[in-house]
Design a protein that fits this description.
heterodimer; A: alpha/beta; eight-stranded mixed beta sheet; two-stranded antiparallel sheet; 6 helices; 11 strands; about 35% helix; B: mainly beta; 22-stranded antiparallel beta barrel; five-stranded mixed beta sheet; 37 strands; about 5% helix; about 60% strand; globular
């Protein structure tokens, strides 16, 4: 009797133990859309390599700029001071196009799409990682574009734009995005 | 026993591995987890302009600075569909889509959620709304009814003035300006932080402005000086909860020349009037965001204001409580509901001029209102239908229902079409119900009229709400990625508009002997107003932005003839039919910007106003990251012109902005 009961206990424990880690990976995390996007931006900063010339050698910082609205800025601001790849993130809100040359990464919200279009025509984007939140961003020359698909957030990546700016994105992230090649359009 | 403990421990470990959404730090998640996460609520940023099924125009803080305006009414000139007519140095007649008088009563104006509409005079006293423009985040103007979730009186539109959050106004700021008409304005603001994540700001402002001229050239006695101070604090006690407390106090002196009716020659005397106004307000707001996408807002404010004019002194205290709740995220519906309670008490006393008299010196009015709105997704990314209604119970009219329906269609990602039908009402005020006022005296004309006639407005408690049914459509298009076109057209049908109906004359009575001709306010006029607005906004390059706006307005009124009512169809010619403006925002160098704005406003023959052009230019030099200097010229084309009342002159001023 006791052996049976103990066996049962261990069986239950075994099942729970087996079930737990499996559950943890498949577990459904539910998050507000903006938080998911903020997390993804942070991961882009983490898994991108910049050309050596665009990075300062001592106390290097990663300047992340935003051309968006103040609601999202307040969420992105939480990145300020965090470290990725031994560089400290400096978060800046851009007013108009000035100062974009000091940015390593730029996020463009839909409200500022027209300013972005004007800016893109005149500046070469070497060493600048661009992420946008509206349809047409990647096709129009931006790099990563968020889209909303069946309750999950996805990313379309214009790989040609990334290469033209001499940036490299790690395979771990590349596997999760939808690569597009707008050259043919 | 030991095995039991083990089991419990194992169970504990197993259960604790289920993360709870509220506690998750997005920056700690792996990319795989983020791509796999389910969206619990779609982003709620201020509804993107592009997606709004309404005629909306937003002035950003950058736009406000570039326009070089020194007061909120002046910034509104750039907004299509808004008629801004400066009456004199300290007051403006502002309306949306017609019916503009100094007491335009069909417009709802809010500053951070607080109504600044005076129910006694059915209008906004702009001379006491001189917030520091540097602390204004944006001004949203919604033309047409129904787009506001709040209140009767948002008949023709809503002007929503939103100040910057305290975290966006940190550090010190001093703004000083002076010029020929702007005799001196200084504003000082200091912002700081407190606690773990709280921010505050405190400001003080003094303004003074020179007089304008009366049409016959004499001094208009309309100088203006005002003191204002206030604060704002924002903080979050727990995550997802935000608190705001803000308040202002002000004192203002203005003046004007008032034509005072008298029973003796000359029967209308220009009299210099000194106006003294002061007030204080305090507002608190709590916003709670839930992870399932729900949002709850609870707001309350207290507002006391006092005004002493030639005719009477008024003190008013208002208490307003409102709540708004957006239901948790649903795939096909976005539902918001809310309720409001408002208590407003006034205290009137005469100024021995006999122009305005009343029976009750004090009145306490209550209003209870509610709304519900549902945005239904008919086809994701393509078709949406918004249905809503407002309900109101108040002391002046019966139960009011104001429904509206909006349909929007996105044919592709570069175009958007919308249409709307709404009903709105303008509720009567104490002005119509309670006051007796002498509006004018008709001089005697022997032998037909041996005595002067005093035309007196009498209380009209039978006056009903005015009603509007509005039909609107709009089309937006991204012509190129840098240029956007936004067009709207509307057809407004008004019913039960206020009409000044002649009563039966009585007399002669009194000393000096005169006849009394009473007039009553009735609802005997109807009107159809149609028109449209178009805006083209073009980012030519990252240094140059051009925008152009055109508005058209056509008013037809139908009221009783002049032997029965006074000037029933007068509003037809009192609003300009065409308005046009072009704005340029040009960054000549990274430090120097030039922003000229040109306006053309067509005539208002009913008021004797000719058409006029106006050119304003703002030259700004950013000396370094803390100091900038501006030189602004307003009304540069002519030495003066009339917009509504007094001659408005050319104004040039210089401004220093210093941040520390």
């Amino acid at each position: 009797m006791a052996i049976l009961r103990r066996g049962l206990c261990w069986a239950v424990v075994g099942i729970l133990l087996l079930a737990a880690p499996v559950r943890a990976e498949e577990e459904n995390i539910r998050l507000a859309e903006q938080k998911i996007k903020a997390g993804l931006i942070y991961n882009f900063l983490k898994y991108t390599s910049w050309p050596a010339e665009s990075m300062a050698t001592e106390a290097p910082t990663l300047t992340f700029c935003s051309l968006a609205d103040s609601g999202f800025d307040n969420i992105l601001r939480a990145m300020q001071g965090r470290n990725v790849n031994q560089r400290e993130i400096q978060f800046r809100v851009l007013k108009g196009g000035e100062g974009v040359s000091t940015c390593h990464a730029l996020f463009v919200g839909e409200e500022r799409a027209a300013e972005w279009a004007a800016l893109r025509k005149e500046r070469t984007m070497t060493g600048l990682l661009t992420i946008g939140d509206f349809s047409g961003f990647a096709a129009g020359g931006g790099m990563a574009e968020f889209f909303y698909d069946d309750k999950k957030v996805g990313v379309r990546l214009n790989i040609a734009a990334v290469e033209a700016a001499r940036l490299t994105i790690e395979g771990r992230l590349l596997r999760l995005v939808t690569v597009i090649r707008p050259g043919g359009e | 026993m030991r095995s039991k403990t083990w089991m419990l421990a194992m169970a504990g470990i197993a259960f604790s591995s289920f993360a709870r959404a509220e506690d998750v730090d997005p920056f700690a998640l792996s990319p795989e987890q983020l791509f796999n996460a389910t969206v619990s609520s779609v982003s709620r940023t201020a509804e993107k302009l592009w997606d709004a099924p309404a005629a909306v125009y937003v002035l950003s803080s950058e736009d406000i600075r570039r326009l070089g305006a020194t007061s909120i009414p002046e910034t509104l000139r750039a907004v299509p569909g808004v008629q801004v007519a400066r009456v004199n140095a300290n007051s403006w007649a502002i309306s949306v889509r017609g019916f503009n008088t100094g007491l335009a009563n069909k417009l709802l104006v809010l500053i951070d959620g607080r109504e600044v509409y005076d129910p006694l005079y059915s209008g906004v006293y702009w001379d006491v709304q001189d917030t520091m423009l540097e602390d204004v985040e944006r001004i949203e103007v919604i033309r047409g009814p129904g787009a506001s979730l709040w209140g009767a009186n948002a008949v023709n539109g809503v002007i929503n003035i939103i100040t910057k959050s305290a975290s966006d106004t940190q550090g010190g700021l001093v703004s000083a300006l002076a010029g020929n008409k702007e005799t001196g304005t200084v504003g000082v603001r200091q912002g700081g932080a407190f606690g773990a994540d709280g921010h505050y700001r405190v400001y003080g402002k003094y303004l003074s402005r020179d007089n304008e001229k009366w049409p016959n050239g004499i001094n208009g006695e309309d100088e203006w000086d005002a003191y204002r101070t206030g604060f704002r604090a924002d903080w979050a006690k727990v995550e997802s909860s935000q608190f705001t407390v803000q308040g202002d106090a002000y004192r203002s002196h203005t003046g004007q020349i008032r034509m005072v009716p008298t029973l003796t020659f000359p029967y209308s005397v220009p009299t210099e009037e000194n106006i003294h106004a002061e007030g204080i307000n305090l507002l608190g707001r709590w916003t709670r965001d839930y992870d399932d996408g729900a949002q709850l807002i609870v707001q309350g404010y207290v507002d006391y204001n006092f005004r002493n004019q030639y005719t009477l002194k008024t003190g008013r205290t208002t208490l307003d409580l409102d709540t708004q709740y957006e239901l948790p995220y649903m795939e096909r519906n976005q539902i918001i509901l809310g309720g409001k309670y408002r208590l407003s008490g006034d205290d009137l006393s005469q100024n021995n001029t006999g122009i305005i008299t009343f029976d009750e010196a004090n009145r306490l009015d209550q209003t209870l209102s509610a709304f519900i709105q549902d945005k239904i997704t008919l086809e994701p990314e393509k078709w949406y239908l918004t249905l809503g209604s407002k309900f109101e119970v108040n002391d002046y009219s019966e139960f009011e229902v104001q429904p509206n329906a909006r349909l929007q269609w996105h044919p592709d990602e570069n175009q958007m079409v919308w249409g709307a039908v709404s009903r709105a009402v303008r509720v009567p005020s104490r002005l119509e119900y309670d006051l007796i006022s002498v509006t004018g005296v008709i001089p005697p004309f022997p032998p037909f009229l041996p005595n002067p006639i005093s035309v007196d407005l009498y209380p009209s408690p039978g006056f009903d709400s005015e009603e509007l049914i509005a039909y609107e459509i709009g089309y937006r298009r991204k012509i190129t990625p840098e240029a956007m076109l936004d067009t709207t057209a509307f057809y407004n049908v008004y019913d039960r508009l206020s009409t000044l109906r002649l009563g039966t004359a009585s007399g002669p009575v009194g000393s000096p002997t005169h006849v009394i001709l009473p007039i009553f306010i009735t609802n005997d006029t109807t009107a159809e107003v149609y028109g449209g607005e178009a805006v083209l906004d073009w980012h030519v390059s990252s240094d140059l932005r051009l925008s152009a706006a055109y508005s058209y307005l056509n008013i037809s009124m139908h009221g009783p003839p002049s032997n029965v009512a006074i000037d029933a169809e007068g509003d037809e010619d009192e609003s300009p039919q065409h308005q046009f403006n072009v704005q340029m925002q040009w960054d000549v160098t990274p430090e120097v910007t030039v922003s000229p704005t040109f306006y053309h406003v067509s005539a208002a023959p009913g008021l004797g106003i000719d058409n006029y052009e106006r050119l304003d230019v703002n030259l700004e030099w950013r000396v370094d990251e803390n100091v900038s200097l501006s030189l602004v010229g307003q009304n540069l084309l002519r030495s003066d012109h009339r917009e509504f009342g007094n001659e408005i002159g050319r104004s040039v001023y210089g401004q220093v902005l210093w941040r520390f």
